[in-house]
Design brief:
Elements lengths: L1 E2 L2 E10 L2 E8 L5 E8 L2 H13 L8 E6 L3 E7 L6 H7 L6 H20 L2 E2 L8 E3 L7 E3 L6 E2 L19 H4 L21 H15 L14 H23 L6 H10 L10 H6 L1 H4 L28
Antiparallel strand pairs: 1-2, 2-3, 3-4, 4-6, 5-6, 7-10, 8-9
GO molecular function, one term: ATP binding
Protein name: Kinase-like domain-containing protein
Keywords: ATP-binding, Kinase, Nucleotide-binding, Serine/threonine-protein kinase, Transferase
C-alpha cells in the first residue's frame, strides 16, 4: 500500500488510536513511522501539537500529515531502538542507575522544551519514550495523544488524561466519583506539574522494576474502584514509601530525586528546572557538546551485555 510518497511496511503496533507501520519514503529511501488513525478533530489536534513541539533533539520529529476522507496518516521519525518499555522489560525493569540517569536527563530536556512551546504531555511512561538509535543512547519523547496546550503557564485542567499507574494524585482526583478519596493537599485540577509526578514514577520503575504505590487490580474491580484505590494507596503509603527508600540499594541522590518528584502537593513538587539542577542529574556524564539537547554517547553491546548509556 502507498500513502502519498510513502510505502507502508510491516505493522509496528496497534491500539485504540489505530495502527503504526514502518514505512519508506519512495523518493529518498528514508525509513519512517506511519501512524494511521480515524479522521477526527482530536486527531488533527494531536498533529498540531506534534508539529508545535517538533524540532528538538529529544522529541520525535513530525514530518508530514496526509489526509484522506476517513483516515489520516502521520509521517513521523522512525525510532530504530524501539521503546523504553520493551528495552527495560528485556532486563527485568532494573536498569543500572547510571543508565537511568542518562535517560532521565534527556526526558527532562524534552519536557522543558515542550513546556516552553506551551504543551504538557500528560502520558509520560516508558512505552511513550523511544530510542532514536539501535544503541539505545538517544531518547525521543513520543505520543502526544493526551497532551494539552498551556494557554497560560499555571493553567489547570479537570479532564483526566494518561495512564492510571503514572497519574499524579491531582489527576486521579478529577475522576467523577473519586473526589472524596483525595486528601486536603490534593487540588481539584491539575497542571503541567502532573508530568513531574509521572517522571518520578518512571524513574522508580526503571530502577526497581515495580510501581511505588500500585495495587493488584482484581478482575471484579471497576475502573472507578481501581482509581479510588490507587489514590488512597498514594495518600496512605507516601510516608511509608519515603521510609522504604532508606533501604534502597540506589544512591541517596536518586532517592531524594524521586521523593521530591513524588510530592502529593503540586506546590511542593520539584519543578523541571530544579530537577535539571539536582545533584543526581548534574552527576550524569554530559554529551560531547555538554548540552542536554544533544544525544548521549554510548558504547555498543558486546558479548550479549546491555549497552551502557552515557
Amino acid at each position: 500500500m502507498v500513502v502519498g510518497g510513502y510505502a507502508l511496511g510491516p505493522e509496528l503496533g496497534s491500539g485504540a488510536f489505530g495502527q503504526v507501520y514502518k514505512g519508506l519514503a519512495r523518493k529518498t529511501g528514508r525509513v519512517v513511522a506511519i501512524k494511521e488513525t480515524a479522521r477526527s478533530a482530536e486527531g488533527i489536534k494531536e498533529w498540531d501539537v506534534m508539529s508545535l513541539v517538533s524540532g528538538h533533539a529529544h522529541v520525535v520529529q513530525a514530518i508530514e500529515l496526509i489526509e484522506h476522507a476517513q483516515r489520516v496518516f502521520y509521517i513521523l521519525e522512525y525510532a530504530h531502538g524501539g521503546d523504553l518499555f520493551t528495552y527495560a522489560k528485556r532486563y527485568g525493569f532494573k536498569l543500572p542507575e547510571e543508565d537511568v540517569r542518562t535517560i532521565t536527563r534527556q526526558i527532562v530536556a524534552a519536557l522543558q522544551h515542550i513546556n516552553a512551546r506551551g504543551v504538557a504531555h500528560f502520558d509520560l511512561k516508558p512505552a511513550n519514550v523511544l530510542f532514536r538509535d539501535a544503541e539505545h543512547s538517544h531518547i525521543l519523547l513520543a505520543d502526544f495523544g493526551a497532551a494539552k496546550l498551556l494557554d497560560k503557564p499555571d493553567r489547570l485542567f479537570t479532564r483526566p488524561a494518561g495512564t492510571v499507574q503514572y497519574m499524579a494524585p491531582e489527576v486521579l482526583a478529577c475522576y467523577h466519583g473519586a473526589e472524596d478519596a483525595a486528601g486536603e493537599d490534593v487540588p481539584r485540577g491539575f497542571s503541567k506539574l502532573a508530568d513531574n509526578w509521572s517522571l518520578g514514577i518512571l524513574v522508580h520503575v526503571l530502577l526497581h522494576g515495580c510501581f511505588p504505590f500500585a495495587l493488584h487490580k482484581d478482575e471484579q474491580t471497576t475502573p472507578l474502584q481501581h482509581i479510588r484505590a490507587q489514590l488512597k494507596a498514594i495518600l496512605a503509603r507516601r510516608q511509608l514509601f519515603i521510609g522504604n527508600c532508606a533501604q534502597s540499594p540506589c544512591s541517596t541522590d536518586v532517592q531524594d530525586f524521586i521523593n521530591r518528584l513524588l510530592e502529593i502537593s503540586p506546590a511542593r513538587r520539584m519543578t523541571l528546572a530544579e530537577a535539571r539542577a539536582h545533584p543526581w542529574l548534574r552527576g550524569a556524564q554530559a554529551s560531547k557538546h555538554g548540552r542536554d539537547d544533544s544525544p548521549a554517547e554510548s558504547s555498543s553491546a558486546q558479548g550479549g551485555k546491555r549497552p551502557r548509556l552515557g
